Amino acid sequence: MTRPKAPSGGDLDLGSRPRRSLESPLLEALSRRTLAIELRGVAPPSLESLRVEVAGPARITEAEVLEQLRRLLLRRAAQKDRAPGEPVGVDDEVLVSTVGYSHRRLVPRSVLHRVWLGGVHPAFPGLREQLTGAPVGTAVELGVCLRPDFTQEAFRGASALFRVEVLAARELLVADLEDPRQLAELGAGSSLEAVMERAGQAALEEARARAELRAQDAVLDLLASRVQVAITRSHVDQEIKKRWAEMEGRTLAQWLFTDEEQTEALAAWLEDPSERATAERRLRSSIALSLVGEAAGLSPAPEAGTALVQSLARMAELTETEVRQAIADGRDVSLHFQQLNRHLAVVDHVMSHAEIVWQSPE
Questions:
Q1: Per-residue DSSP letters for 302-339?
Q2: 116-161 pLDDT, tens digit each
Q3: Tell me: the pLDDT tens digits for 345-358?
Q4: What mean pLDDT do residues 234-262 have?
């Protein structure tokens, strides 16, 4: 197979690119540039009349219940590692590193480094499905049609070519739904009816959580609109560059992509209108919450830290001890944890002053 060419003339073979730990000149330059937003004299936003109207949870569909059933089965499934050279199974979880190109440009967010894939990838449908049958320990090239609602408009509906390293795979041995003993091991009852009821309840809880998140976003948008502060194009650029470096830039540098390739990848983020709108919204909400927190003298309660550790442990499928150890061992991890804990404390304070008017879902 003729290897596809990257924009600079290099190829997509991740295995041919040496790894390095040093950051690229581009990343080093980005880390040195800090453009502060002037907040002197800016009053904190009022928490009075924080009233928003939000669509309530939508009616649960059969597809959503079946998806919850699938997740339940996979969470409780026994795992068996595939041997090197063994083909990936239909329902396997696969550890991959990937990079994708479309029209000789790096596809934004296609850079995945040692990520486990299972089921349909939300941004790149067809990517995981095409890995079925690929031998563990090899690299494959796959054609993917990008979603018509892809985040960057220039890539919507476009054809892309992905280079995927299949680093590992694990077979998931799910319970037999006709075996009462295996059903009982799922922890949701010993009958299929009980398990389906549990799946339906999980789907309902997820729909409620989505609605509550929409309500929170609406409240924070209203709060941010009350802050009179100038956010320039340069401020938005800086916010996008920070997010790009975290999600994509450092991996590209580690894989020795050239500065030209990295600059082109960053440009795709900077030129995207939806990315710019999201970055400005994120900045305004952050400023509003910071002003509220300082004015109210808020600090997280001790039990809030415990609750956050428990939540992170569930999401990462780790023990609480492992999460606490990661926080203790890493300065950056500890700093991010403290910032997240303070952020959540202020959000809770704001939401306690908000009035949510639930509307019938469309």
A1: HHHHHHHHHHHHHHHT--HHHHHHHHHH-HHHHHHHHH
A2: 998 778 889 899 999 999 999 999 999 999 999 988 888 999 999 9
A3: 999 999 999 999 99
A4: 90
The secondary structure of residue 108, as a DSSP letter, is T
CATH class of 76-196: alpha beta
The full set of domain ranges for the chain reads 20-58+208-359, 76-196
Q: Which residues contact 303 (CB under 8 A, 6 or more apart)?
A: none
In the chain, DSSP finds a helix count (H) and a strand count (E) of 11, 8
By the 8 A CB rule, do 101 and 181 touch? no
Residue 162: CB atoms within 10 A of its CB come to: 24
Q: Are 249 and 108 in contact (CB under 8 A)?
A: no
Average pLDDT over the chain, rounded to an integer: 85
What does the alpha-carbon distance between residue 239 and residue 36 come to, in Å, rounded to a whole number?
11
Architecture of domain 20-58+208-359: Orthogonal Bundle (1.10)
C-beta of residue 198 within 8 angstroms of C-beta of residue 72 = yes
Q: 58-106: per-residue pLDDT in tens?
A: 899 999 988 888 887 777 778 899 999 999 999 899 999 999 999 888 9
Instruction: Determine whether 12 is exposed, middle or buried from the number of CB atoms within 10 Å of its CB (0-12, 13-18, 19+).
Output: buried
Residue 87, beta-bridge partner list: 135
Residue 153 DSSP class: G
